[in-house]
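User: Some background: our group keeps a shared notebook of sequences we're curious about, and every so often someone picks one and asks for a predicted structure to add to the entry. Today it's my turn. The entry only has the sequence so far, pasted here. Could you supply the structure so I can complete it?
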Amino acid sequence: MIALGTVTSGASDARVPCRGENRPRRICAWNFRFDRVDHALTHVLSPTFGGRIVTG
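Assistant: Of course. Here's the predicted structure to add to the notebook entry:
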């Protein structure tokens, strides 16, 4: 498998009603930010949020 990218955030001005399981503080949106894996893992906030790749 080859990891290409990751969903990193949703647009706060593109919120829609959530479907499926409805948990507290769950926010759903129709517009998302997709970043390359190398950017997501080397971004200055990556250590703060614990970004890493796990296999197996």
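Suggested note for the entry: The chain has a mean pLDDT of 76. The first strand starts at residue 5 and ends at 10.
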